[in-house]
Amino acid sequence: MRRFLVPLIAMLIFVMLWEWLVWFNEWPNYKMASPSDLGPAFWKYRILFFSFGWDTLWRTVVGLLLSIFFGVFLGMIMGFSKIIQEGLYPLLIGFNAIPKATIVPILALIFVGQHDFNTVLIAFLISFFPIAVSVSIGLSTLEPEYRDILRALGASKFTIFWKIALPKTLPEFFGALKVAVTLAFIGTNLMEIVSPHGRGLGALFDSGKTNSDYPLMFAVLIALAILGILLYYMVVFLERTFAGWADQLSR
Amino acid sequence: MIEFDGVYHKFSTKTSELQVLKNLSFYVPKSGFSAIIGPSGCGKSTVTKLVAGLIKPYNGRVLLNGEMVQTPRSNIGMAFQNPVLLEWRNILQNVMLPLEIVKNNLTDLQKKERARELLNLVGLIEYENNRPSELSGGMRQRASLCRSLIHQPEVLILDEPFGALDAFTREDLWLTMSRLRETGSFTCLIITHDIREAIFLADEVIVLSGRPATNQFSIKTEKENNDNLDQLYTPHSTKLLNILREQIKLARKNEMVER
Ligand SMILES: Nc1ncnc2c1ncn2[C@@H]1O[C@H](COP(=O)(O)OP(=O)(O)OP(=O)(O)O)[C@@H](O)[C@H]1O
Ligand SMILES: [Mg+2]
């Protein structure tokens, strides 16, 4: 009971303060929205919220899936081969050092009009790095004895990876995935905001901006928060399912 | 049976070559039990990796049942100081792991039966559903022993398996080990730092010199029975203990002179 009540009350107080601030300063709608304006904004654009919210969600998820496949693959070859690791690491670090916000307009220009492709691409580019690093570190720090118990029986490299190395790196992998999902979400939104005539919640936000429609902009922020939480808990759920054993270990 | 015939081995690093084994020869007969002791870092673990086929000798021959060891083969069981149990599996599943690698015609039920038999033998039958982290160090090592025996290997290689355990737990495990030996039929090579462990478990104790390791000394233990710890305190055992201690001292002294 208390677990729900305390956050609920805190939220109510926050919303009331916000409402009061706008009322007290007599800010008009084109300056700042109050919570009571959000309901009407949501209602007015309800169809757009659903269809654009779906766009943002699936683009993020597809980008994330791509970065899981690519990141795991990259981490795998780096974890298994020292030479590949030495060759790729500086490249990866260099790539990761570029603030991704600067890549967004470049991609938006190169693939102008291809909104889905653009957005998925940036979500992927921005989020594969932590996954690749975590998998490669997990594999290269695997104690040799773990490998030897299966290798001594004549197990193939793939069997060792599948039965031991992969499950053993799952906790680190999910730690990285939590970072990656947040990054992918940022990537998706940046691209949607920048692309002209696009779809997605970012585009809705941008149209709110051009029209100085603060209630709409704030409503989008709230919708994004909800989506972000949803995505994060999707990862948490997967983590509990596949790497729950590590949870017990740390307790 | 395990045979080393004039085995040389060296590790090459970027800057230098390290000679580890030098003309090492020994022989463990079928169903025999030999212990190898020697100074730290002399190359004992290297010997186990050669037997397992994880590495190849630089020169000389390593033979199992008269056949040259070229690659890993499934008739070997291994256990190390670190029990390396997989935390995402329970104890029963951990013990059954080798049966997922080694070809066999067993049904699931038969696999479980076999695993439970072993777990029963080492006193872990009540823990088959527990996670490794819920067990004590000694219990984990027992589980690791079961895993090394589940596929009924002809050769068992133990690399300081009880090295991380306290003295009482270790003695318990010596007794467990002799029980396992009575029920199974395997040729065993154990690496150890504990001379009394070597005397209690093995039929023959081989002392290696400092690096590069070669045969320095070996002695048959010639005990009557193996079912209690009292036999470690007989005059015969005390004599063995003193002889082996002198040999270890000698090995370490030579090593210091060489460096
Ligand atoms: N893969 C390797 N590459 C290079 N050198 C190695 C390698 N493995 C072992 N060595 C070196 O070979 C020597 C013998 O190693 P080994 O592990 O066989 O010793 P050991 O007798 O088992 O030591 P300990 O008693 O400490 O377990 C050591 O000096 C070690 O540093
Ligand atoms: Mg060793």
Number of helices of chain A: 10
CATH class of chain B: Alpha Beta
CATH architecture label of the largest domain in chain A: Orthogonal Bundle
* H-E order of chain B: EEEHEEEHHHEHEHEEH
The pair of chains with the biggest contact is:
A-B, 22 and 25 residues
What Rg of chain A is obtained from the alpha carbons, in whole angstroms?
A: 22 Å
- Classified by CATH, the class of the largest domain in chain A is Mainly Alpha
Side-by-side strand order of the widest sheet of chain B: 6-7-8-3-9-10
Helix count of chain B? 7
End-to-end separation of chain A: 24 Å
What is the name of the CATH superfamily of the largest domain in chain A? MetI-like
In CATH, what is the homologous superfamily of chain B? Answer: P-loop containing nucleotide triphosphate hydrolases
Q: Radius of gyration of chain B over alpha carbons?
A: 18 Å
What is the strand and helix layout of this fold?
The complex is a heterodimer of chains A (251) and B (259).
Chain A: H1 2-25, H2 35-44, H3 46-80, H4 82-97, H5 100-110, H6 115-140, H7 144-151, H8 157-194, H9 201-210, H10 214-250
Chain B: E1 2-12, E2 17-28, E3 33-37, H1 44-52, E4 59-64, E5 67-68, E6 76-80, H2 91-101, H3 108-121, H4 137-149, E7 155-159, H5 167-183, E8 187-191, H6 195-201, E9 204-208, E10 215-220, H7 235-258
Parallel strand pairs in B: 3-8, 3-9, 6-7, 7-8
Antiparallel strand pairs in B: 1-2, 1-4, 4-5, 9-10
Helix pairs in contact in B: 2-3, 2-4
The structure holds adenosine-5'-triphosphate and magnesium ion.
Residues 44-45, 159 of chain B line the site of magnesium ion (MG).
What is the structure about, briefly put?
The complex is a heterodimer of chains A (251) and B (259). With 251 residues, chain A is mainly α. Chain A has 10 helices and no strands.
